[in-house]
Specification:
The structure holds two protein chains of two kinds.
Chain A lengths: L12 H14 L6 H12 L4 H11 L3 H10 L11 E6 L2 H5 L2 H12 L12 E6 L11 E3 L2 E3 L4 H13 L2
Parallel strand pairs in A: 1-2
Antiparallel strand pairs in A: 1-3, 3-4
Helix pairs in contact in A: 1-2, 1-3, 2-3, 3-4, 6-7
Chain B lengths: L2 E6 L2 E6 L4 H7 L23 E4 L6 E2 L10 E3 L3 H15 L16 H8 L24 E3 L9 H9 L6 E3 L6 E3 L16 H5 L5 E3 L3 H9 L4 E6 L3 H4 L13 H11 L3 E4 H21 L6 E2 L4 H10 L13 H16 L7 E7 L3 H5 L15 E4 H10 L21 H4 L6 H15 L17 E8 L2 E9 L1 H12 L7 E5 L16 H4 L4 H15 L9 H11 L5 H7 L10
Helix pairs in contact in B: 9-11, 9-15
The chains are: A alpha+beta, B alpha/beta.
The structure holds iron/sulfur cluster (SF4) (3 copies) and FE2/S2 (inorganic) cluster (2 copies).
The site of one iron/sulfur cluster has 13 residues of chain B, from α4 and α5.
């Protein structure tokens, strides 16, 4: 699992307060771990080691247990979203039209894995299911922007474009 | 409890209600193979090797978790059962690095045995994509090779439920599932305590101790080295298992013989180190008691426990006795006193500890464990490694004569012997402390309340008018309970003995691996402990301070227990470590 420990953790005091409140709220219930992890995912957008340690300490559960769960369920992410979050559709229509190759190309160009984020925090990459734009297959999105009918070469151009922005 | 009537393979039996099919099978002499099941701690029904037919049930059931009921007819030996087990094995092998010849477990592997039993000759039946994992050899005491892991999760259960350490677990999902630490950090970087309890329950060669046999062979071959071996109290009670003796056979004499034939220059007994530990520890305890020192004092001979304390209860480091472990004490005595007496430069002495413990491999590299300026101990062999060396050397263990340890550091008391079982250190310390406190010879040397294999034992003794509350625990999950109770004021003890492994060193992580077929149904701890308590009974000297060699060590060299020289050589210090 791509875990970008290279991106420094930038949690704020407010975020920490919110997480502590969530821990306080669920602490004495059985099965507190999942809801607290969900809350943390919402607060921070991802679950880096710093956040998982707070959860483990707060609920008095092993860190490995938190980590195991965070890598088991797709709803948790270990990397922050990049400034430009790229999402490649691997739904059936897109896949048939070669989105798998596009995804691979992006991994190579960016040097990150599914769920990863570049060390400068600029790009993150993930795969997703059908986004309802099958007519444009294969499709990817960068933040809100949709790009369709892609070829592998388009990938490089799109990346160049966002690299040029800052 | 009521009995129920059931049939195994057509033959009627009556067995207690509420037990599982596998337990019932054991009672009536039917063996069922297991890969994931570990009684009480890993009952997850995951591997499905233990499947059997229950007449009237459409699907095969996992016998390790399925309870018997009245009138149940169970079939364990049908073609259908065999085929299902074989199929499951083939699936396991499809992602398994099956190069048995180069595997540490070759010949002892539970997976290998079951494959042979079920005629799995087509190991490549379901070959497809397989994950390649890097071997994690970051920890001092062990390595993990996930290419050989079958995800039975026994190690996870041992680490979590027995030890309360919980640094390993399943990461990721599906095809990528693997056992690892949080954030897939190397084991050497997390709060693993080195106990090796994961190793002794693993049915495969996926996890194993780091091999020190090479260094030992090299030292023995090196003519410039004076190579001294010392064996922990518990080894004599377990090494016989490597040579097919019944569990709990004391083979001390043959073990010493074998060591001599391996070419060690001197064979000493860690029991002597244990006696020295008692001299120092009893003295430290009395000083703390009489001078308002930090109480409860907690024993420090189990390096897995010490590391656990440093990671999880750093605030209790002042409670730890500053005594080195018996192995380290004896190593230090060898490289100082013995070296001086025999005119040997300590740099030319190579000390090997044969230990029931993998954490000892970590302990020898700790700071403040080099009394002579050189490490007190240079290599640690587990019981298993020594067994393998003896086999390799072609020594016919069972036909060896019985021989004695060398003197003077081979002399020991019964108190030293029982160090190998939970409660033994406490009892040994009480035997000496009682006489030191009262100034009188005590006729009673047996402290029965602290014996036995329960995880937590308590007792109160009145010694010379002082009420002493003591507690003995083993298995770190139990240690957690005890320490939490002490911390929140629920319990007040003067003296606590902690051993990392459940039952103490006799059940250590370096001991011979018994397959689950034995482990699940035989009380290893009691059988092995018995071998030590009967030796204690047989000994003429049963108190550490009456060991004449110990007396000589103090009169000619150290002065009195707790002297500054004794402190320099026999005591150590601890460090705070990260919780995660
Ligand atoms: S783990 Fe067992 S089956 Fe696998 S290679 Fe080693 S000995 Fe063979
Ligand atoms: S050696 Fe002990 S603490 Fe370390 S992983 Fe194994 S069971 Fe857990
Ligand atoms: S390392 Fe051994 S005990 Fe642990 S899951 Fe793998 S096979 Fe089972
Ligand atoms: S499959 Fe990609 S948008 Fe529908
Ligand atoms: S399912 Fe019963 S031993 Fe694994």
């Amino acid at each position: 699992m791509s875990n970008c420990s290279c991106i420094p953790f930038k949690g704020t005091k407010e975020q920490q307060k919110k997480l502590e409140a969530a821990i306080e709220k669920y602490k004495d219930q059985s099965g507190a771990l999942m809801p607290v992890m969900q809350a943390a995912q919402d607060i921070y957008g991802y679950l880096p080691i710093e956040v998982q340690k707070m959860i483990a300490s707060g609920l008095n559960v092993p860190l490995e247990q938190v980590y195991g769960i965070s890598t088991f369920y797709a709803q948790f992410s270990l990397s922050p979203k990049g400034k430009y979050a790229i999402s490649v559709c691997l739904g059936t229509a897109c896949y048939v039209k070669g989105s798998g190759k596009i995804f691979e190309r992006l991994k190579t160009v960016l040097g990150i894995d599914d769920g990863g984020c570049t060390p400068d925090g600029k790009f993150s990459l993930e795969s997703c299911r059908c986004i309802g734009a099958c007519g444009l297959a294969p499709v990817l999105t960068v933040n809100e922007e949709v790009y369709g009918r892609l070829t592998e070469d388009d990938v490089d151009k799109i990346i160049e474009k966002y690299k040029a922005l800052d | 409890m009521a009995d129920v009537n059931i049939k195994f393979n057509g033959i009627p039996y009556s067995v207690p209600e509420g037990i599982t099919i596998i337990e019932a099978a054991r009672l009536v002499g039917v063996n069922i193979p297991t890969l994931c099941y570990l009684k009480d701690i890993n009952e997850i029904g995951a591997c499905r090797i233990c499947v059997v037919e229950v007449v009237g049930q459409r699907n095969l059931v996992a016998s390790c978790v399925y309870p018997v009921s009245d009138g149940m007819e169970i079939i364990t030996n049908s073609e259908r059962v065999f085929n299902s087990r074989k199929h499951n094995l083939q699936l396991i092998l499809s992602t398994h690095d099956n190069r048995c010849l180069a595997c540490v477990q070759n010949g002892h592997c539970e997976l290998q045995k079951i494959c042979r039993d079920f005629g799995v000759d087509d190991v490549n039946m379901f070959d497809g994509e397989i994950n390649h994992y890097e071997i994690d050899d970051s920890a001092e005491h062990m390595y993990r090779d996930n290419n050989k892991c079958i995800l039975c999760r026994r190690c996870v259960a041992a680490c979590e439920k027995v030890q309360g350490v919980s640094v390993i677990g399943p990461n990721e999902r599906g095809f990528n599932t693997h056992i690892g630490c949080a954030f897939d950090q190397p084991l050497g970087d997390v709060a693993c305590v080195g106990c090796g309890q994961c190793i002794v329950v693993c049915p495969t060669g996926a996890i194993s101790e780091k091999d020190h046999t090479k260094r030992v062979w090299d030292a023995i071959q090196d003519p410039t080295k004076h190579v001294i071996v010392q064996t922990a109290p518990a080894i004599r009670a377990t090494i016989g298992e490597m040579f097919d003796y019944p569990i709990g056979t004391n083979v001390e004499g043959k073990m010493v013989s074998a060591l001599r034939r391996l070419g060690f220059d001197k064979i000493f007994d860690t029991n002597f180190g244990a006696d020295a530990t008692i001299m120092e520890e009893a003295n430290e305890f009395i000083e703390r008691l009489q001078n308002g020192g930090t109480l409860p004092m907690i024993t420090s001979c189990s390096p897995g426990w010490v590391k656990f304390c440093e990671h999880n209860y750093p605030e209790m480091i002042p409670n730890l006795s500053s005594c080195k472990s018996p192995m380290q004490m004896l190593g230090a005595i060898i490289k100082t006193w013995y070296a001086e007496q025999n005119n040997i430069d300590p740099k030319d002495i190579f000390v090997v500890g044969v230990m029931p413990c993998t954490a000892k491999k970590f302990e020898i590299g700790r700071p403040d464990q080099s009394a002579s300026g050189y490490p007190d101990v240079d290599a640690v062999l587990t019981t298993r490694e020594l067994g393998h060396m003896i086999s390799r050397a072609g020594i016919d263990f069972r036909n060896l004569p019985d021989e004695d340890f060398d003197n003077p550091l081979g002399e020991s008391s019964g108190a030293g012997t029982i160090f190998g079982a939970t409660g033994g250190v406490m009892e040994a310390a009480l035997r000496t402390a009682a006489e030191r406190i009262t100034g009188k010879q005590a006729s009673e040397v047996d402290f029965m309340e602290v014996r036995g294999t329960e995880g937590i034992k308590e007792a109160t003794y009145n010694i010379g008018g002082v009420e002493l509350n003591v507690c003995v625990c083993s298995g770190l999950a139990n240690a957690r309970k005890v320490l939490d109770a002490v911390k929140n004021g629920e319990k007040k003890y003067h003296f606590i003995e902690v051993m990392a492994c459940p039952g103490g060193c006799i059940n250590g992580g370096g001991q011979p691996v018994q397959p689950s077929a034995v482990r699940n149904f035989v009380d290893l701890k009691s059988l092995r402990a018995m071998a030590l308590y009967s030796e204690d009974m047989r000994k003429s000297i049963r108190k550490s301070h009456e060991n004449p060699a110990i007396q000589k060590l103090y009169t000619t060299y150290l002065g009195s227990p707790g002297s500054s020289k004794a402190h320099r050589i026999l005591h150590t210090s601890y460090v705070e470590r990260d919780k995660f």
